[in-house]
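Ticket #4471: structure export looks truncated?
Reporter: QA, pipeline team
Priority: medium

Steps to reproduce: submit the single chain below to the structure queue and open the exported record.
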Amino acid sequence: NLKEDEIAIDLYADGDRAATRVCFACVDHPGIFSSLAGALALVGANVVDARTYTTKDGFATAAFWIQDAAGNPYEPEKFNRLKQMINKTLMGKVVARIAIQDKDKFKKREKAFKVPTSISFDNDGSEIYTIIEVDTRDRPGLLFDLTRTLANTNVYIASAVIATYGEQVVDSFYVKDMFGLKFYNQSKQKMLERKLREAIELGVERAST
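Actual output as written to the record:
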């Protein structure tokens, strides 16, 4: 049984997806998905897909598929060091939001790419969740910025699907509000869209300097 602040981490080589699968198990709390995304961004891992589930007894399990900066899976001999670094971040020894600023940079050749951002809300695609789809320019730390923004506005993320197309990424978040309801309210949707766009723009500025 996991203690309140304990996080179990396992890493696997996933040959089918040319990525390393990182599995987390911990006691569920608001913002846990964002914390995990921040820890991965901080170790320089690029998240190519993610799934998260919460069990009925209040445990969160999350699987992230990650690649290194060159777009390759991590070598198995690096798993232990990766695990230690992720653990340090999650234990609060490093504040991801601040430390990430040095990692989150576009490479010189990437600066020229311009990808417009579009954000949509879909209440028909799932019976119990609103699907927020964010289509924008990919960069390290993007998933952390988006999930932190959602967590800070009391949005519960049940799962995320990430699809990358070169410089472009489509992040789909299956979400509900703190009462377990969908986001039907137009003004609430507009507020969330504004905050997500702000987070994206701030991140682009940070990555471009």
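Status: closed, not a bug. The export was complete when the record was re-opened. Leaving a note from the reviewer for reference: DSSP finds five helices and eight strands in the chain.
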